[in-house]
Design a protein that fits this description.
Layout: E1 5-10, H1 13-24, E2 40-43, E3 48-53, H2 58-63, E4 69-73, H3 74-80, E5 85-89, E6 95-101, E7 112-115, H4 118-127, E8 133-136, H5 143-147, E9 152-157, H6 161-165, E10 169-177, E11 179-183, H7 185-190, H8 192-202
Bound molecules: adenosine-5'-triphosphate and 1-O-pyrophosphono-5-O-phosphono-alpha-D-ribofuranose.
Amino acid sequence: MEEILKVAMPKGRIYKQAAKLLLKAGLPIPEDLEEGRRLIIPVPEAKMEFILAKPVDVPTYVEYGVADIGVVGKDVLMEENRNVYELLDLGIARCRMSVIGLPDWKPSIHPRVATKYPNVASQFFKEQGQQVEVIKLNGSIELAPLIGLADRIVDMVETGQTLKENGLVEQEEIFQITSRLIANRVSYRMKNAQIQQLCDLLQPVLPVQAAQV
Ligand SMILES: Nc1ncnc2c1ncn2[C@@H]1O[C@H](COP(=O)(O)OP(=O)(O)OP(=O)(O)O)[C@@H](O)[C@H]1O
Ligand SMILES: O=P(O)(O)OC[C@H]1O[C@H](OP(=O)(O)OP(=O)(O)O)[C@H](O)[C@@H]1O
């Protein structure tokens, strides 16, 4: 008998896009989350249960096996480095991670970089042979160079609107980001038929540029 697949889903901007994809794949899941604070949403018609999580926590739930699979941005996967399988590039929530600064930025003796992604940023500047102090922030990262907390930031760019409105420029793209389907290593074996079936349903409805990982 098929069991319920526990799915860690981010609450924010990814949910709607992921839900659209799952609906296209023929799974009868809610397109919108109702207003409310319910964090566990059973979807028995799809043999699923959604665990609504903060995006950065999705790989943690999946690594510990309290969720069998999850949907998460590549940015979070790179930063968190959790022991999970990456099954599919879903091609949604497309954006890029970039180094950003003021237009008149010049190298300084003690450069500081503010970011939500300290591991990714440290690794990037290390590979570039640049010594920088990385300062962790949790949001509104674009503030940092405007008010003098840091010379530059490492952050997400999608439309470029936030940069434009704050007079900042993109100096260098670090990598492209899309959301991924991830799986717990044990669940992938124990619930393989179910997980594989889900991947097979998703594969034909993925946006064109998404590829199997
Ligand atoms: N501007 C953007 N456009 C498209 N995708 C984005 C953008 N910013 C972030 N993302 C992707 O969406 C994911 C979730 O971002 P979101 O803004 O919903 O959550 P968060 O700000 O990390 O968390 P929360 O607001 O719940 O604390 C990111 O990890 C990234 O993969
Ligand atoms: O290029 P754009 O389309 O303007 O998108 C980029 C913005 O989106 C994200 O912020 P988010 O909305 O998640 O807010 P926060 O991180 O500041 O909380 C990201 O951190 C940028 O600030």
